[in-house]
């Protein structure tokens, strides 16, 4: 059966994003090149025909071009490199394209230079990211931008979509920040969906107006209203995740929706919606979903919803 092999080749990175789930101890762990090739070979033998090379930051690995060549030789039809884009110089992009990369994912976090540099905690990083983004767009390969939804970014999301569209990016994925591992204690970074979704819906409308393929991850369809068709659950596909620590199906990841609450029963999306992430339920309970379904909440929040 076809599917995606998602290879997290290592946790180290050339940035230190303030919401990153990777801990300092995790940054020390990585897969050796031989182990990566072995995983790619195993994936092909089991029918996986698409490959994602991610991290951490995969472009800091000197053997990245060689890994892409190995993936192409093994017969992967689609080879993606997920990056923050800082090392996507014109020459590096050309090498990756020649090696066999078919798509680039660039995490922009947020589009404003000062806010971006503060978030990634590296002065001058925004200029490198933006030039890297321009270089992958110019390469002719498919480009996807990943934008993070967190307390200090969601209000800027509509403006970010305008910024992205102006750079001729065809596809955008909206990621909702997670309270796991290195970000577990930064509860203030996770906004209530009731506050963030109106800005997300503005962004979705702008994306449609610009002809963008724009997808929302992690927000249940019932909260998106008429924009529910933009909801996307990558775990609904066959995706195997390989990390330096473990191998698992994406549907079982803590970063994926896992819990349907009582209000989900009878919802028209019940059969296709994975539910809510455990970290979100622990923080805010099920009041928002229950309200959307005109039902009383049953799962209490750890703290009251904040208006920020």
Please describe the topology of this protein.
Layout: E1 4-8, H1 33-45, E2 50-54, H2 64-74, E3 78-83, H3 90-99, E4 103-109, H4 113-120, H5 125-138, E5 142-149, H6 157-166, E6 171-176, H7 193-209, E7 213-216, H8 221-224, E8 239-242, E9 247-249, H9 278-284, H10 287-292
Parallel strand pairs: 1-2, 1-8, 2-3, 3-4, 4-5, 5-6, 6-7
Antiparallel strand pairs: 8-9
Overall description:
With 308 residues, the chain is an alpha/beta fold. It has a single domain (4-255), classed as TIM Barrel, CATH 3.20.20. It is 32% helix and 16% strand. The chain has helices at residues 33-45, 64-74, 90-99, 113-120, 125-138, 157-166, 193-209, 221-224, 278-284, 287-292; strands spanning 4-8, 50-54, 78-83, 103-109, 142-149, 171-176, 213-216, 239-242, 247-249. A 9-stranded mixed β-sheet has the order 7-6-5-4-3-2-1-8-9. Helix 6 packs parallel to helix 7. The longest helix is centred in the middle third of the chain and has 17 residues, at 193-209. The termini are far apart. Residues 304-308 have low confidence and may be disordered. Keywords: Iron, Iron-sulfur, Metal-binding, S-adenosyl-L-methionine. It comes from Enhygromyxa salina. Pfam families: Radical_SAM.
């Amino acid at each position: 059966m076809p599917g995606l092999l998602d290879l997290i080749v290592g946790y180290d990175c050339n940035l230190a994003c303030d919401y990153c789930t990777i801990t300092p101890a995790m940054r020390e762990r990585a897969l050796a090149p031989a182990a990566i090739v072995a995983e790619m070979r195993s994936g092909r033998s089991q029918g996986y025909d698409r490959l994602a090379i991610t991290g951490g930051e995969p472009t800091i690995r000197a053997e990245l071009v060689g890994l892409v060549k190995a993936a192409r030789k093994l017969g992967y039809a689609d080879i993606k490199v997920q990056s923050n884009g800082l090392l996507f110089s014109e020459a590096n992009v050309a090498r990756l394209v020649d090696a066999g990369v078919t798509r680039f994912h660039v995490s922009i976090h947020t589009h404003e230079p000062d806010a971006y540099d503060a978030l990634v905690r590296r002065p001058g990083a925004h200029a490198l990211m933006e030039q890297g983004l321009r270089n992958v767009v110019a390469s002719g390969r498919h480009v996807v931008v990943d934008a993070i939804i967190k307390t200090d970014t969601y209000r800027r999301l509509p403006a970010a979509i305008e910024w992205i569209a102006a750079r001729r990016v065809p596809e955008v994925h909206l990621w909702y920040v997670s309270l796991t591992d290195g970000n577990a204690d930064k509860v203030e970074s996770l906004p209530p969906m009731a506050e963030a979704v109106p800005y997300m819906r503005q962004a979705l409308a702008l994306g449609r107006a610009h002809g963008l393929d724009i997808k929302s991850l992690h927000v249940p369809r019932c909260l998106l209203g008429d924009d529910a068709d933009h909801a996307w659950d990558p775990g609904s596909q066959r995706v195997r995740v390989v990390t330096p620590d473990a191998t698992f199906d994406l549907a079982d990841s803590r970063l994926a929706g896992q819990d349907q609450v009582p209000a989900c029963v009878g919802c028209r999306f019940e059969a296709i919606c994975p539910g809510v992430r455990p970290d979100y339920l622990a923080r805010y309970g099920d009041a928002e979903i229950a309200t959307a379904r005109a039902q009383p909440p049953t799962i209490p929040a750890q703290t009251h919803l904040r208006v920020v």
